[in-house]
Amino acid sequence: MPQTVLLVTTMSGAENCAAAVGRQLGLSVEVAENRRIALAALRRREYAVMVLDESLVEADPAGAEVLWQQAGLAVPIQVNLGISGCNRVLREVRAALQRRERELSLAMRAAAQIMEGEMNTKLTGLLLKTQLALQEPTLTAGTVITLRQVVELAGELRELLRTPPVVLSESGGPTSAAPGAHMSRLTA
Fold it and tell me: What is the CATH number of the domain that holds 178?
């Protein structure tokens, strides 16, 4: 699923800026003309970035706070679109996407390390218990075979955990227009 940006502004001509950002970054950019439309959009889907026009923040601080709270995982950006040009919005969105990618990568790495540690602990416990069980003199031949298979499988799993993981991630941030990049206007 391509990354999408939500641009929340009442400024006329925002569609042109949204289209330019979409073309330059190869993203889908949706324009919401008011808080109600933006909230509905945030409930429908997850966005990579939410750009909120500063004029909306100043006109309705409580409404802007609701938008920030409902943004989910979208990186929030506040820009004065009346003063800033589209190039500034483009730079801000690009930086936000790069920051998001770095944060996701760090979070994935941390989660993988935690899982690896937990798996190693569990495998160590499994190996110790099965090796202790193998020392029991009253085991049947079938049980001994099964326990040895468990030890072998646990050892294989431990070896798999020792090999460096392959981490799949998105690109470090798109820099050119991608097929299918587009801009859309959200309506009530």
Answer: 3.40.50.2300
Task: Map tokens 């798109």 to a residue.
Answer: 174
How far is 85 from 20, CA to CA, in rounded Å? Answer: 11
Under 8 Å between Cβ of 167 and 109: yes
What are the backbone angles phi and psi of residue 18, rounded to the nearest 5°? -60, -45
Residue 65 has phi, psi (to 5 degrees) of: -60, -40
CB 67 within 8 A of CB 35: yes
Local structure of 130: helix, strand or coil = helix
Band (pLDDT 50/70/90 cuts) for residue 188 is low
Residue 154 confidence (pLDDT) = 86
Tokens 């979409």, residue located: 22
Whether 167 maps to a domain, the answer reads no
pLDDT at residue number 37: 94
- Each residue's pLDDT tens digit, 89-134: 999 999 999 998 999 899 999 998 898 889 888 988 888 898 888 8
SS3 call for 167:
coil
14 with 55, same domain? Answer: yes
Structure tokens that stand for 25 in this block: 């970054």
22: nearest Cα among 2, 39, 42, 38:
2
Q: Which domain holds residue 127?
A: 109-162
